[in-house]
């Protein structure tokens, strides 16, 4: 059960969802369909944050504007830091910034080869042709992701649901996991800042880092000009809302809120359904929400 914390700051009481995905990355709804769903769920301020891609922004913005919902331009960049994958959300960016666009092309470029390697590894454990199977779920040929493999493995009955596929096949140490080097933290933060945006650590509670490594990471992110962390996200438990509220205060980060919605009936909560940020936090949307 989650507890709704009522914030006396009027900006903080907006229904804000600044993290979700469309078919332009590993979501199952088109950008316009995600906009419609967000609006139907009561979202007032919304960002589409596809992985390593801004290709859905125009359609998303148009749909949001038609619905009278405030749109924030966003994305989620895959980063490798200390050999771990970390996701950095960028908000309020100029999606036409040339350095950002070039950086995203570079970041996406290894996905195809990685997918072929994943398919070869899965074949060795008795799951053939998963590359072709995953492709059936891909909406953007530049953005084949583990989620597409997971959906295919559910389709053929290997596991009950995508979370089970990740647990048994697609996370580090499992047979279909292929290590990959993404953008580095400095690049990702600089692309976002260079495009006029705010860099936000996505779902910090999901990373397997020691307290010392976390401290080094947050200090480095701060020194690079990172501005915020997600506190209330579909990937956090209620205890982690408290934990990352304290961390945001300790390091002087603004806070963000986002469902990380990918698909109805998958692991993430629906758009706009999470509790508000607690009142001691500075919402990342404070400077631009109307
Ligand atoms: P990729 O960018 O190809 O490595 O895929 C990462 C995506 O896989 C994430 O953005 C999530 O959508 C999904 N994902 C990662 N871990 C899990 C998990 N344990 N359960 C379900 N989905 C996951
Ligand atoms: Mn995803
Ligand atoms: Mn993520
Ligand atoms: Mn995400």
From TrEMBL:
Query: What are the leading ranks of the lineage?
Result: Bacteria, Pseudomonadati, Pseudomonadota, Betaproteobacteria, Burkholderiales
Q: What SMART domains has UniProt attached to this entry?
A: POLIIIAc
Entry-linked InterPro entries:
35NBP, PHP_dom, PHP_domain, Pol/His_phosphatase_N, Pol/histidinol_Pase-like
Q: Which residue ranges run through the membrane?
A: none
Q: Name one Pfam family in it.
A: PHP
Domain Polymerase/histidinol phosphatase N-terminal stretches: 16-81
Q: What SUPFAM superfamilies does this protein's entry cite?
A: PHP domain-like
PANTHER family (UniProt xref) = EXONUCLEASE, POLYMERASE_HISTIDINOL PHOSPHATASE N-TERMINAL DOMAIN-CONTAINING PROTEIN
**Which species is this UniProt entry from?**
Undibacterium macrobrachii
Give the protein's recorded name: Phosphatase
């Amino acid at each position: 059960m989650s507890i709704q914390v009522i914030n006396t700051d009027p900006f903080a009481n907006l229904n804000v969802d600044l993290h979700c995905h469309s078919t332009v990355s590993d979501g199952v709804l088109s950008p316009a369909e995600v906009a419609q769903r967000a609006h139907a769920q009561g979202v007032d301020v919304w960002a589409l944050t596809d992985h390593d891609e801004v290709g859905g922004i125009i359609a998303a913005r148009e749909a949001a504007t038609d619905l009278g919902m405030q749109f924030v331009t966003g994305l989620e960049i895959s980063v490798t830091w200390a050999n771990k994958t970390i996701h950095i959300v960028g908000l309020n960016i100029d999606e036409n910034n040339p350095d950002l666009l070039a950086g995203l092309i570079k970041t996406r470029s290894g996905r195809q080869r990685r997918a072929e390697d994943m398919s070869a590894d899965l074949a060795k454990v008795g799951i053939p042709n998963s590359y072709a199977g995953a492709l059936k779920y891909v909406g953007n040929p530049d953005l084949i992701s583990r989620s597409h493999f997971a959906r295919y493995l559910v389709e053929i009955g290997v596991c009950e649901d995508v979370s089970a596929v990740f647990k048994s096949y697609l996370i580090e140490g499992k047979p279909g996991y292929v290590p990959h080097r993404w953008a580095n933290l400095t690049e990702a933060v600089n692309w976002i800042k260079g495009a006029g945006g705010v860099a936000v650590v996505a779902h910090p509670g999901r990373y397997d880092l020691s307290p010392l490594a976390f401290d080094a990471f947050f200090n480095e992110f701060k020194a690079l000009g990172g501005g915020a962390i997600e506190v209330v996200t579909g990937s956090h438990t209620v205890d982690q809302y408290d934990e990352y509220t304290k961390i945001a205060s300790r390091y002087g980060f603004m806070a963000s809120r986002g469902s990380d919605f990918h698909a109805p009936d998958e692991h993430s909560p629906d758009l706009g359904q999470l509790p508000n940020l607690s009142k001691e936090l500075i919402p990342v949307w404070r400077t631009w929400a109307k």
